[in-house]
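Ticket 4471: requesting a sanity check on a complex prediction with flavin-adenine dinucleotide. Repro inputs:
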Amino acid sequence: MRHFAVVGSGPAGFYTAEALSKTYGDKARINILDRYPVPYGLIRFGVAPDHQSLKAVSKRYDKVADEPGVDFIGNVTVGRDVSVEELLELYDAVILAIGAPHDRKLGIPGEDLAGVVGSAEFVGWYNGHPEFADLDPPLGGTHAAVIGNGNVALDCARILSKTPHEFEGSDIVGTRWRRSTDRRSARLQSSAGADRTRSR
Ligand SMILES: Cc1cc2nc3c(=O)[nH]c(=O)nc-3n(C[C@H](O)[C@H](O)[C@H](O)COP(=O)(O)OP(=O)(O)OC[C@H]3O[C@@H](n4cnc5c(N)ncnc54)[C@H](O)[C@@H]3O)c2cc1C
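Returned structure tokens:
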């Protein structure tokens, strides 16, 4: 029997677990560890809440977690609760699939001014990520500048341009909208919630 620890339950972690499960079948025990109580990494906390078809990839990950040799273990921060060295004593192999969850500073004047937020923070906030629940981005104005033009920048621009009712049917966790006199200054208040926790 081989024992594997996969650290991180985003796409990289789940596809690794899937490959290990397919390769070793019932001769492997695979534990997927994550610092959060819920899996899926940036599929949950990154991909926009109004892109349900993209988020649906998590159903494939659920199937991986349902394999007899695979277990998801949440609320374990590797490096704080357990070290990589300790994991290596317990497992035949440890795979780090921890993603790139934080913004990279640009190193330019003004980036620390009030009202300037990184996309990881902003995206995490509108997706109900617990680490960014207190971000409180300034949404009272009528103009926003998005620096960059990759898919994350376009997600941010799209979310900023939408009105509250256009989010109906999205999966923003615990969302409620408060309308002000200016429609554009309606603020999204999302609170992190733990749904479909799969800790076995
Ligand atoms: C706004 C946005 C929109 C996107 N849109 C798309 C899209 O439309 N289509 C697409 O294909 N991709 C999209 N992506 C990219 C996609 O989300 C990422 O490429 C993918 O999630 C990366 O997978 P990953 O497994 O490497 O990392 P992550 O998804 O970040 O997963 C890493 C996991 O590791 C865990 N972790 C980190 N540190 C530790 C630790 N010390 N101990 C335990 N666990 C830890 C984290 O909690 C997390 O669950 C988007 C990303 C963003 C930010």
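Notes from triage: The radius of gyration is 19 Å. Leaving this open until the requester confirms.
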